[in-house]
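User: Um, what's this?
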Amino acid sequence: MSDDPRITGHTRSVVVTTICCLAGIAAGVVSALYVGTDPADAGSTIAVLIMGVFVIVQYPLYTVIGVGDFGIKDNLYVTFMTFTLWFISYTILLTSAVTI
């Protein structure tokens, strides 16, 4: 084992993917709470801004955990995964007539 405290390899991938997915789901729930789940609320740009905030908030967390060296590919992956999970969770909440 090396003395480097940074997370590398497969563990790094699992940590980044898990945080992205959880952040996307949390962004979907927060969007539903803040914007609403009525059909008219689906066109709100505030929900997209909430998702963007959840993308940005992840980066200091990655630095604290020790996986902060990101290239363009990693940044695109974090954004895409967060957006995808946000889109899925918020769409489910919008179409299932949930009141939060």
